[in-house]
Amino acid sequence: MWSISKIASLVHEWLSNTFSATWVTVFEMVIAGVLVISLFAVLGLILVMMERKVSAWIQIRLGPNRVGPKGMFQSAADTVKLLVKEGMTPNGADKLLFNVAPFLAIVVSMLLMAPLAFAKDFTLWDINIGVLYVSAISSVSVISILMAGWASNNKYSLMGAMRSGAQIVSYELSAGLSIMAIVVLTGSLNFNDIILSQADGWWIFKGHLPIWIAFIVFLIAVTAETNRAPFDLAEAESELTAGFHTEYSGMKFALFFLAEYVNVFIVCAIGATLFLGGWMPFHIGHWDGFNHIMDFIPSSLWFFGKTFFLIFLIMWFRWSFPRLRIDQLLNLEWKYLLPISMVNILLVTAMAILKWHF
Amino acid sequence: MVEEIGTTQDGDLIINVGPQHPATHGVLHLVITLHGETIKKVEPHLGYIHRSIEKMCESLTYRQFIYVTSRMDYLSSHINNHGCALLVERAMQIEVPARAQVIRVLMDELTRIASHELWWGAMAMDLGAFTPFFHAFREREMINEIMEDTCGARLTMNYMVPGGVQEDIHPDFVRKVKEFIALFKRKVDEYDEMVTDNIIFRKRMENVGVISAADAISYGLSGPSLRGSGVSCDVRKYYPYDVYNQVQFEEIIETGGDSLARYMVRIREMKQSISIIEQLLDGIPDGDFCAKTKAVIKLPKGEFYQRVETARGELGIYVVSEGATTPYRIKFRSPGFSNLSALDHMARGSKIGDLVAMMGTLDLVIPDIDR
Q1: How open is the CA angle B262-B264-B268, to the nearest 5 degrees?
Q2: How many CB atoms lie within 10 A of CB B343?
Q3: Whether B127 and A322 lie within 8 Å, measured CB to CB
């Protein structure tokens, strides 16, 4: 059966037979890097397209339909447009910070891509502290936003950045605690171990109510962490015109834009990995025939299917809900989500100790 | 003394919202003083779209000046025209045919629905929900088509003239309005489901921009904005014109005084407008659509005042006539101008995110404010 892991091992075999061990490592690193970057670009294009089509569908519009069949090349055309636009640096801006900020944003998203398990036995960087790594690196993204907002020398940008800082730092707590629920149950920080622990059923089915609560808190928290509506206060266009990226244009703006979409993909991939079994197929108890058919679907399809389902959910939020106010946003986190997730983690721990889960 | 550009002595930020800003829906310029996220002062700067309509009217005849008024509050151009026509009719003692009176009221109420729909969509968009805007425009488009059939225009109608209306209604008018009403009744409930009952929306609106009845009156608020503070002020009830005294409708009053109350007034008003249209639609009397009037209208010497209830509030038209073919002086009392004046009072002490909610529920149309 066709699978990514097979191709990967074929490439590895061929490289090992042809080159010395050092060169194999170097080549594999280069290949992995190129793969991540191209996956990154492709994901950006696909997600922007998907967002526009989903929003069009929700808003009874057609969406882009001129460039290519059904408008599929619209985002490619937009990318070209953004590439040839002038990337201006406003007068009075802190030039270094202003120009570094978008790259920091994109680098953070690229780093986050490394430990994800895209398919069975296919992880770019299989580290044993994957979950911790993701939580740590994702908190760096707030620095790029703060840099962009501060360096722009624009009051709207500054306010957007400050809002974003308060928001991301707060919501990281809930996101971290809901992730911890799964870590407690599996006893591992490694993404592959977490996925393997779901071979007999995804955590969302095995974990009873506490995991449902953790999943919902996770969804809310990551929506806020990625600055997506209804938590898009950092760029609230009706209040702050465009928030932290008001002054950005051309490719520098596009990098922020791309980073936002890839971040959405990454958090959804993490959600799918932790709660929905990653690349693990859907199995029902002892229905061997059914399970066998499910196994036949490639693991990468399972992974991307689940991830895109979550992405669709987040897009659905964006096009349905009004935006919260800044004080309501912080109240929601500190007065509701955080206490809920703290109690929840106790429940999950009790559940893990008493082996109540399936 | 301003120590640094854009900050006050106390270190508060001064921010220019507008004249080009996504939330102002036009060229409104607000200079706001911010302490962190909290608003300390809102100062509207006007004049960006001033076209000196009042002065222009002094050189236009009583038939011509009606067309200029379509450009004031362009979302209720029918109602502006209606007010002007009423003023001339009253001054000249022109008897308007029953058919014209009914048509005018029908058009007024359709305009009110269209205006409130645009307000609803735009306000939801200001609060960050984009989808309602498109849903509102879907239904508003049907009204625009109805208008286009009869008046030939979609925004600046110029349909009502002294003595009646310019043309008879289109043969499809009644059928299309019935189709629209049948659909719209379901859609209003959908609006409630989508926006009104949304918890985030409620939290954004409740206790935001509160203005007491006394303050609202002293700032000269009118229309739905005043009725949201619990003051009964509907011109259609107190000074009924045309057939408004023959139809049954409820004057919507909410006592909250906050943004949610003003919002609910408008949502419920749409339902009342539908009921008015339903009462009149089947019994449009036969006859002339316009009274016979003299070719040249000369208003008798004196002062005339006519008020109408537009979608935004009370529009007053004050004409001083010297007995010539053109008015000596015209003054419009536009609802938007007075409504805007209360913004500073409402906004002080609230967050910058609330400003858009307040501006939204005041339903500001900038050409109406500036004229």
Answers
A1: 125
A2: 23
A3: yes
Contact B134 A239 (CB under 8 A): no
pLDDT tens profile B151-168? 888 888 888 888 888 888
One-letter amino acid identity for B174? Answer: V
Q: Which of B21, B131, B204 sits opposite A59 (nearest CB)?
A: B131
The residue-averaged pLDDT of B26-40 equals 85
A interface with B, Cβ–Cβ < 8 A, is 55, 58-61, 155-156, 159, 163, 229-230, 232-233, 236-241, 319-328
Nearest to B353 among A237, A239, A319 (CB): A239
Is the N-terminal amide bond of B285 cis, ω within 30° of 0? no
pTM for this model (two decimals): 0.84
Q: Which residues of A touch B12 (CB under 8 A)?
A: none
Confidence grade of residue B1 (pLDDT, cut at 50, 70, 90): very low
CB pair distance less than 8 Å for A237 and B22: yes
Classify residue A255 as exposed, middle or buried by CB count within 10 Å of its CB (0-12, 13-18, 19+): buried
Whether the Cβ atoms of residue B235 and residue B314 lie closer than 8 Å to each other: yes
For the stretch A222-267, pLDDT in tens is 888 888 878 887 777 777 777 788 888 888 888 888 888 888 888 8
Radius of gyration, CA atoms only, chain A: 21
Q: What is the pLDDT of residue A5?
A: 67
- Given CB atoms, is B282 within the 8 Å cutoff of chain A? no
**Residue ranges covered by each domain of chain A:** 87-354
What tokens does B209 get? 């921009």
Mean of the pLDDT values across residues B336-348?
88
Domain range summary for chain B, segments of one domain joined by +: 53-370
Fold of B53-370: Cytochrome-c3 Hydrogenase; chain B (1.10.645)
Tokens describing residue A43? 């994901």
Contact B362, B225 (CB under 8 A): yes
User: Could you report the predicted ipTM of this complex, rounded to two decimals?
Assistant: 0.80
